[in-house]
From TrEMBL:
This is DHA2 family efflux MFS transporter permease subunit. PROSITE patterns: MFS (PS50850). It is found in: Cell membrane. Belongs to the major facilitator superfamily. EmrB family. It comes from Ectobacillus funiculus. It is a multi-pass membrane protein. The chain crosses the membrane at residues 12-33, 53-73, 80-107, 113-131, 138-157, 169-189, 201-220, 232-248, 268-293, 299-317, 329-349, 361-380, 464-483. Residues 15-488 form the Major facilitator superfamily (MFS) profile domain. SUPFAM superfamilies: MFS general substrate transporter. It comes from the Bacteria. CDD domains: MFS_LmrB_MDR_like. The lineage of its organism: Bacteria, Bacillati, Bacillota, Bacilli, Bacillales. Pfam families: MFS_1 (PF07690). Keywords: Cell membrane, Membrane, Transmembrane, Transmembrane helix, Transport.
């Protein structure tokens, strides 16, 4: 088995601790930014379609780089990959904290994403090879508790910092911690890696980057440029064609960069599909909610963060519980209950008004997070459990790639839907207001009317975008009924023969 970590009776807890702290910092920084998006829009004078690039650009870089992590995990040691990942993340954090224009901030975020793209698949792979299948749910639950602590404290910490300081402080606070984790990694990680004769296929990297990058860029640009813009539909078409060529090339490679043969295992294929659909709903909600709470309702960043705190705490505390429930009952029951809660709460989020109470928002968001907590980790773990051990790097890389791509496309698509619906409804309200206007309106009355129209139009846009997520979550709910408890598949005789043939060929060379 080509891993830097061999499965032993005692998992490498020291290594796991360092990796989890690094992953926690990366995840915390991502959740910190959501509450700050309205403040960044105002400070840097950018609109919603532009500022969402801080989220989708981050995912874009992840989507481009994560497919290479299966190769990287097999080629390099955990120590080398972790130090490289934390170095990129730290540099990106410093760059973003110094940004005074949007392009520099975006460059910092995308540099951070280079580190994040390596970190998560690396940690997941170490977890998979360190614990047997019957204990994996509990282990993943503890892993989830630590990582879900980031969304628990992220929005509240972000709200407090933005309200009392400046959004740049979000990066300044993380910088010394990231440097400290990097130093810990240098002194504590000591694993060695056997030399493996494996090379990265440059054509596959190019096709993967153009494929995933084209799709993400096209969907992300649609909100600002419109679906009829050549820049939008040409990049989507080029991306789709490149992705098809990339997949076909992987089937022809003896050692593919990203092995699509893992989709022959039905529970893995199903779990990947459900995770993609749920991620679209989850990430879009994380962007739409702060826009509604702060831009439309005028709730302060701190209060907006506190509103999200109970839901994030529930998600964190439920993680080890769902891990134990998964070991006992499997993923199907958990996924059905969780997706039912997600679908129902998404519907109620599509009925927001200009005076929806703060308590109502807290309860609604908390129940939605409860539903999400019962889906993501159990469904992913169930799918990975079916893969033979040699496919773990490809399974974790594929999962993370698909989640990043679907999250970015989902966010971009729903922000586009929100923006288009807002613009259309604003024109309708303006036409209606002019029709019913009587007498000569003062400049103050016109300004007040424009502001009211803008708020009502944006509310309609947010509600309509949430209404679309009802169908997205509903699709995942239907798929959840087909989940079965997965058992690890054995390598077939054909696969073993093929592997032996490759070994002989390498020996001859």
């Amino acid at each position: 088995m080509e891993h830097s970590i061999k499965k032993t009776d005692r998992p490498p807890y020291g290594m796991l601790a360092v990796l989890m702290i690094g992953a926690f910092i990366a995840f915390l920084n991502n959740t910190l930014l959501n509450i700050a998006l309205p403040s960044i829009m105002k400070d840097l004078d950018v609109d919603a379609s532009t500022v969402q690039w801080l989220t989708t650009g981050y995912m874009l870089m992840n989507g481009i780089l994560i497919p290479t992590t299966a190769f990287l995990i097999q080629k390099y040691s955990v120590r080398h990959l972790f130090l490289a990942a934390m170095s990129f993340f730290t540099i990106g954090t410093i760059l973003a904290g110094a940004a005074h224009v949007f392009p520099l901030l975006l460059a910092g975020r995308m540099t951070q994403a280079v580190g994040s793209a390596i970190m998560m698949p690396l940690l997941m792979n170490v977890m998979l090879v360190s614990f047997p299948a019957e204990k994996r749910g509990t282990a993943m639950g503890v892993f989830g508790l630590i990582l879900m602590g980031a969304p628990a404290i992220g929005p509240t910490l972000s709200g407090w910092l933005v309200e009392h300081y400046d959004w740049r402080m979000l990066f300044h606070v993380v910088t010394p911690v990231a440097i400290g984790v990097l130093l810990f990694g240098i002194f504590l990680l000591k694993d060695k890696k056997e030399k493996i004769d494996i090379r990265l296929d440059g054509v596959s990297v190019l096709l993967s980057s153009v494929g995933f990058g084209g799709l993400l860029y096209g969907f992300s640009s649609a909100g600002k440029k419109g679906w009829d813009s050549p820049e939008v539909y040409v990049t989507i078409i080029v991306g789709a064609i490149s992705l098809v060529l990339f997949i076909l090339r992987q089937f022809k490679q003896e050692k593919p960069m990203l092995n699509f043969r893992i989709f022959q295992y039905p529970m893995y294929a199903l779990s990947a599909t459900i995770s993609m659909v749920v991620t679209m709903a989850m990430f879009s909600g994380m962007v739409l909610t702060p826009i509604y709470v702060q831009t439309i309702r005028g709730i302060s960043p701190l209060d907006a963060g506190l509103m999200m705190l109970p839901g994030a705490l529930i998600m964190a505390l439920m993680s080890p519980i769902t891990g134990k429930l998964f070991d006992k009952f499997g993923g199907r029951v958990l996924a059905i209950i969780g997706l039912t809660l997600t679908t129902v709460t998404s519907y109620y989020f599509s009925k927001l008004t200009l005076d929806t109470t703060y308590t109502h928002l807290i309860i609604l968001y908390s129940v939605r997070m409860l539903g999400m907590s019962m889906v993501m980790m159990p469904v992913s773990t169930n799918g990975l459990n079916q893969l033979p051990a040699r496919f773990y790097p490809h399974g974790t890389a594929m999962n993370n790639t698909l989640q990043q791509v679907s999250g970015a496309i989902g966010t971009a698509l729903l922000v586009t839907i929100m923006s288009n619906r807002t613009e259309t409804h604003a024109k309708e309200l303006a036409a209606d207001a002019m029709k019913h206007a009587t007498g000569q309106l003062t400049s103050e009355a016109i300004a007040g009317m424009k502001q009211q129209i803008a708020m009502k139009a944006m509310l309609e846009g947010v509600n309509f975008a949430f209404f679309v997520t009802v169908f997205i979550a509903g699709l995942a709910l239907v798929l959840a009924f087909f989940i079965k408890r997965a058992k690890q598949a054995e390598d077939t005789m054909a696969e073993k023969a093929s592997e032996k043939k490759m070994v002989n060929k390498l020996a001859e060379n």
